[in-house]
Amino acid sequence: MLSLAVDRRGHTRAVLDGAIQPAGFALQPSDVTPIIAAYRRMVRDRAFDVCELAATTYLVARAHGKRITALPIFLTRIFHHDAIVSRADAPVVAPRQLEGQRVGVRAYTVTTGVWTRGILQHAYGVDLDRVTWVTDDEEHVQEFRPPPNVVAAPPDRSLAELLAAGDIIATFKGNAGAGRAGPPRADWSAPTSAPSTTVPLFPDAHAADTAWFQRTGISPIHALVVVKDELLEAYPALAMALYDAFSTARDDYWRELQQDGPRTADDQRWLDLQSIVGGDPLPYGIASNRRTLEALVRYAVEQHVIPEAVSVESVFAPSTRDT
Predict the structure, then answer these.
(1) pTM for the full model?
(2) Is the dihedral of CA 170, 174, 177, 182 positive or negative?
(3) DSSP secondary structure string, 93-119?
(4) Which residues are registered as beta bridge partners of 270?
(5) Are 114 and 180 members of one domain?
(6) What is the DSSP letter of 287?
(7) Which of 15, 38, 93, 130 sits between 20 and 30 A of 257, alpha carbons compared?
């Protein structure tokens, strides 16, 4: 019986409920809410046999020798032109105005931060090293050491408080920044919205996301699935058994969604994502995601998140490299 920590979504529900199981293996789901709490437990304590993990957190964990390996099962995707907000009374009206300023992000290695900074650099010419990134939480991987333009917020001051006081000019929304309720460094208490006195950096984020995808072909991956190395070594069939099970669950969900229409906000989000990418919003496997994966690795290196570039194939279980 393998312990499993994966968020409940339409395309994972059948695996979590046991309706679809990896051939030859049994899974015991763990209820971790919010799922982001499982990320830290996995990279620090390897608390689960199979676990959802933020893509950048995995790259950092791998760079620091953690004995976990990814499967090309990409559970979440998010576009990012709506990720940053600034004070309404001192709005950032052009991305390059972030240079020379202080911008809040929960932790430097969060995947939303890496993708958004990559967009700011490559699409809008922002010199990321000229921005001071202010964090109010720990990095998931404790061994990570941020570059010198990353500074910690004062103890017991959240990004929302810093933004309200004018100590930072902008911040990320949601769990990546000022959208967390409760004190900083807490265990992700219930999220809240960004302060009402903010304005988005990109007012028409959907149009900007669509234009960026059409230029680059990149559909940003957020969460993937990782497995303890000793299990992959002991059971050579495990990686593909998990890949096939999650793929079947996704395929069944997508057919149901197209036939019956959305029933939840999450259902609608995948249809909205399809309106940007124009095809399958949830592709698994390496081949159909190569451009996106190569971009994530490149951004992580450029932003001093990992020390050197790695090949896409090298970060996935060998038996899945032909997917």
Answers:
(1) 0.94
(2) positive
(3) -SGGGGTTSEEE-S-TT-HHHHHHHHH
(4) none
(5) yes
(6) G
(7) 38
Q: How far apart are CA 68 and CA 99, in angstroms?
A: 37
> Which of 192, 214, 236 is where one domain is finished?
214
Per residue in 48-68, pLDDT (tens digit) is 999 999 999 999 999 999 999
The pLDDT score that the predictor gives to residue 183 is 45
Farthest CA pair distance, the chain: 59
Q: Are residues 223 and 307 in the same domain?
A: yes
Asked if residues 68 and 43 have their Cβ atoms less than 8 Å apart, the reply is yes
| Cα–Cα nearest to 109, from 137, 79, 73, 72 | 137
Same domain, 242 and 208: no
Cα distances from 191 to residues 36, 174, 181, in angstroms, run 12, 7, 5
In this structure, the answer to whether residues 208 and 258 fall within a common structural domain is no
pLDDT tens-digit series, residues 100-142: 999 999 999 999 999 999 999 999 999 999 999 999 999 999 9
The pairing of beta strand 170-172 with beta strand 150-152: unpaired
In the numeric block, the tokens 């996995």 are attached to: 42
Residues 146 and 62 in one domain: no
Q: Is the pLDDT of residue 291 over 50?
A: yes
What domain range is 125 assigned to? 84-214
The reply to whether 198 and 107 lie within a common domain is yes
Inter-residue contact 239 to 231 (CB < 8 Å)? no
